[in-house]
Amino acid sequence: FWLKWLEVSRASPATQSKFRQFLHFAAMVARLAYRRHSRYNTKSNKTRLLRTPGGRLTSLVVKKKAKGPACGDCGKRIIGVPALRPQEYRRLKKRERRVNRAYGGSRCAKCVRTRVMRAFLIEEQKCVKQVLAEKMSVGKEADAPKKSKKKN
Fold first, then answer.
1. What is the pLDDT along the chain (152 residues), one digit of tens a residue?
2. Closest CA to 72 of 97, 104, 95
3. Total Cβ atoms within 10 A of residue 23
């Protein structure tokens, strides 16, 4: 734009006036009324200009941009699930709304891995405690008769 303006500034006065008229025309935009119920520039009523094949300018209602599902633990976006608005999720098949694993559309793969690992380690810890408790009880049973013999 500025390069064009430099070229025009060096040109004849007639060319300069034509360029000014073009700028004035380009700055003028046809005012358009909202075609829906709401008449205010709210988040749900955003529009953009669209030129029809007939040459008219009309307003096209722009849909809200969807964020998509996020992991409930870490908050990152879930890979493999499309980012759609809630109404559009209803139209999808169940297999398209989720990922085919445990905690499919709710948790990311990394968090599922850590959950499984944590559950496994907790179970292992319970087994180790039980084995230690059994050893202690066997040791106490062996010590108890010796003490009773000494008393006699």
1. 555 555 656 677 777 666 666 665 555 556 778 888 888 888 989 988 888 898 888 888 999 999 999 999 999 999 999 999 999 999 999 999 999 999 999 999 999 999 999 999 999 999 999 999 999 888 888 776 655 555 55
2. 104
3. 13
The residues, any chain, with a CB within 8 Å of residue 30's CB and separated by 6 or more, are 57
Beta-carbon contacts of residue 119 (< 8 Å; ≥ 6 apart): none
Please name which of 53, 82, 54 lies closest in space to residue 68, comparing C-alpha atoms.
82
81 CB-near residues (< 8 Å, 6+ apart) = 68, 69, 97, 98, 99, 105
Q: Is 47 helix (H, G, I), strand (E, B) or coil?
A: strand
The pTM of the whole model exceeds 0.70 = no
What's the distance, CA 99 to chain centroid?
15
Identify the residue whose tokens are 């209803």.
90
